[in-house]
Structure formats: C-alpha cells, structure tokens
Design brief:
Length: 289
C-alpha cells in the first residue's frame, strides 16, 4: 500500500537562517520513503533545518540525521535513524503524457494520510521567481488536500514525481518534480559527493517576475549578492552580460552561464534611466547552508 511509504515531516529552522523570514521557523510537510532509512521530499521544507522528524503512518517518529539538498531540481534526500521505513515503488515520468491518470498522496497530520486523483494536464517547462527552472515538470489536475512534498503516483502506484506546489493562484492544479531527476542524482545525494563543476550555477539572490515581455525585480534576498550590488525592487532587467532578456527562461539561461564568484553584468531600467549593475555571483549552497 503506497500510503504506508508516506511520512509526515516536521522541521525546525533557526530564526537567523536566511530562509526563515520567508519560509518560517517551523515547517510541516510530507515525504516518501525511497529506502528503509531514506525519505525524499521538496527541498524548501527542510532548507536550513536544525532538526527534522519524520513520522511514519503507524506513529513511529524517526529523527533525521542528514539532509542532502539539491537546489537545482528542488528536492531533498533525508537519512533517518533506525530505518524500518517501507519504501515506495519508483517509476519514471519519461513517458508521462497529458491525459494520463495520476494519484497524489499527502498528510494532514502525523498519522492522517489523504489522496486525490486527477490526470496529467501538461508536461513541460516551469520557471519560478526564486531562481529555479525545470525543463520538464508535471502539471496535474489532482488537487492536493494536505501538505506539500508527497508522491505523485501512476496507475500502478509507482512514484513518478514529488508534489512541490499547489498552484491555487492560477487554478486548482498541483505541480510535481519528475522522479527521474532524483534518480539521475541519487548516488551523489546518498554518498555526499561534491557537485560537478557544470552544476555550480551562479546565484544572485533576487526574485524576478516575467510580465508582458519584460522581467522585473520584485525583491532581493537580504544579505545576498543582488542586494550588495545595489539591485533594487522595481528594476526592469534589460540584459545580462549584454544578452537581451524578456522572459524568466532567457534570464536564467544567461545567468547560469556563469558560476559562483564570477561577475554578472545586468543592464536595468530604473526611474526611466538605464543603469548597469555588476553582481558578483554567489553560491546558493554556501549561503543557505
């Protein structure tokens, strides 16, 4: 039974952690066991956590002793003490197409599990304002009745994704991160191997939003590279290192050609005047560790 693999997560985050003002000092979510001692979930639920507990369906509480984050795909692999979890069957989202039936599982409390059925609405690119982009994400009509971070299942009860968001702002949909992204990185997440150089993306700590053919800065992360360089809320980003940008996808592609420690030249429109802001890119892993 797939519900037996779903765990309730409770995370405590120090007030001084950079993520606390936005995501909170106490977070509840869902994870799915992928091994007797490992749980997969959405990374923002445990970002910066000093303490995480996973509660299995029978009520047993497992202390999380290690958190392996992957900011690029938005997932976290948790290692728990004691083992004894019941791993879910893992599938693949490679062949998932619009119209396919799906089922999501979640928690509404430590021992309460709920599900929702629906179908795949779309499979395609997804960009978000927190310097995050996927080439392939799953949008489903299954509406999450509980907390985020749980599994999206196919008709054979195999995990094909992790439900990261409920997109109530644009309709009653849920967005899932394909399980294949985790499977590609699983060995590294389990072994604590360093990230390869090609995955060391520039991060500048801002919140860009695309709107009507332009990209506006809606905020900056306190203490982050963008704030230090003088990027301001309301700036319209015209180009990155001389490359014109008018969408989030264009912006991120231009930004991620650089790595941590490298300068990023941003041409912005502010108060009807053009300014050039040079940001020294940071490393998200170091900033949020």
């Amino acid at each position: 039974m797939a519900a037996a693999s779903v765990v309730y997560l409770h995370a405590e985050i120090p007030a001084e952690h950079p993520s606390a003002p936005i995501l909170g000092e106490e977070r509840m979510g869902v994870g799915v066991a992928v091994a007797p001692d490992r749980v997969l979930t959405a990374h923002y639920l445990v970002l910066g956590a000093s303490k995480v507990e996973a509660v299995a369906i029978e009520g047993r509480t497992h202390a999380v002793r290690r958190i392996a984050l992957d900011h690029e795909i938005g997932l976290a692999l948790l290692t728990v003490d004691g083992g004894g979890l019941r791993p879910a069957a893992l599938g693949s989202a490679v062949e998932v197409r619009p119209g396919r039936p799906v089922f999501l599982l979640t928690c509404t409390g430590e021992r309460e599990r709920k599900g929702a059925s629906g179908h795949v609405l779309a499979v395609g690119p997804f960009e978000a304002f927190w310097e995050y982009m996927l080439d392939r994400a799953i949008m489903t009509t299954a509406v999450n009745p509980g907390l985020a971070g749980g599994p999206l299942l196919d008709h054979e009860a195999r995990v094909i994704g992790i439900v990261a968001l409920g997109l109530a702002a644009v309709g009653r949909y849920s967005l899932a991160i394909p399980i294949d992204l985790f499977l590609e990185r699983r060995a590294r997440l389990e072994s604590e191997e360093p990230r390869p150089e090609h995955e060391r993306r520039a991060w500048i700590g801002f919140y860009p939003q695309g709107h009507e053919g332009s990209v506006a800065v809606t905020g900056v992360v306190p203490g982050g590279p963008a704030e230090k360089a003088g990027l301001q809320r309301g700036d319209l980003i015209l180009s990155v290192d001389g490359e014109p940008v008018s969408t989030l996808r264009q912006l991120y592609r231009a930004l991620w050609r650089k790595g941590p420690g490298e300068p990023v030249g941003m041409q912005v429109l502010r108060d009807q005047a053009i300014h050039v802001v040079e940001v020294v890119a940071g490393d998200r892993y170091e900033f949020f560790k």
